[in-house]
Amino acid sequence: MPLYEYYCKDCKASFELIVAHQHADDVVCTKCHGEKVRRKLSLFAAHSGDGADYDYDEALSSSAGSCGCGGECGCH
């Protein structure tokens, strides 16, 4: 199941949920249980090329803290 990011207009909370695609728009806020929840546009990483020369271990170690947290939030 995919991981979706959401934003609640009622309490202004952002949260993530693993939800089946067919239920992705039927979500309530995990904080206030409000129904004014919208999916956020998620960012993703893509590598161009055939991947033959791509070093996945190096990419993981160099992406630590890619959100600006310094690696403390577990984003890697």
Mean pLDDT comes to: 77
Radius of gyration: 16 Å
Count of beta strands:
3
Overall geometry comes to: elongated
Q: Which consecutive residue ranges, at least 5 long each, have pLDDT under 50? A: none
Class from secondary-structure proportions: mainly beta
- Give the DSSP E fraction (strand runs of 2 or more residues): 15-25%
**Amino-to-carboxy terminus distance:** 19 Å
The largest beta-sheet arranges its strands as 2-1-3
The major sheet is characterized as:
3 strands, antiparallel
* Helix and strand run: EEEH
The residue fraction in helices comes out at under 10%
Number of helices: 1
What does this protein look like?
By secondary structure, this protein is mainly beta. The chain is built from 1 helix and 3 strands, in the order βββα. The radius of gyration is 16 Å and the shape is elongated. It starts with a strand and ends in a 14-residue tail after the last helix. The model has no long low-confidence stretch (mean pLDDT 77).
Describe the secondary structure blueprint for this structure.
Layout: E1 3-8, E2 14-18, E3 37-39, H1 56-62
Antiparallel strand pairs: 1-2, 1-3
Throw out a few tags for this protein.
single chain, 76 residues, mainly beta, three-stranded antiparallel β-sheet, 9% helix
Provide a short characterization of the protein structure.
The chain is mainly beta. The protein has one helix spanning 56-62; strands at 3-8, 14-18, 37-39. It has one helix and three strands.
